[in-house]
Write a sequence for this structure.
């Protein structure tokens, strides 16, 4: 599963309470209209954390592009979840999590197996 698919499915998965009917249509609509702000709010939080640990010069140039893409697609998944429901994302995401090691590079797999 690629970053885009993982982000969208993760976003759908995080909308479980909404998609199971616990939110009113008005509340869902408000969240849908505010969705473009979500990646910006999350990016700001991540940025503050990077500054807090004192690694901005090292991390920002390499991490910022991927972080922006990941946050955007996760928010897109949430938007789809608010608007259309979860579909079978719970099953797909669970399947991915259960076989996650199969999706890692050889180097990352060795790190994961080492503990």
């Amino acid at each position: 599963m690629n970053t885009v698919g993982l982000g969208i499915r993760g976003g759908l998965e995080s909308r479980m309470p909404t998609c199971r009917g616990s939110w009113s249509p008005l509340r869902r609509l408000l969240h849908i209209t505010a969705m473009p702000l979500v990646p910006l709010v999350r990016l700001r939080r991540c940025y503050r954390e990077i500054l807090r640990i004192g690694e901005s010069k090292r991390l920002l140039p390499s991490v910022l592009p991927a972080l922006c893409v990941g946050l955007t697609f996760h928010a897109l998944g949430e938007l789809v979840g608010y608007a259309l429901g979860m579909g079978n994302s719970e099953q797909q995401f669970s399947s991915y999590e259960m076989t996650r090691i199969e999706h890692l590079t050889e180097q990352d797999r060795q790190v994961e197996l080492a503990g």
User: Anything to note?
Assistant: The chain has a mean pLDDT of 79. The two ends are 23 Å apart (CA to CA). The chain has one domain: 3-114. Residues 3-114 form one domain.
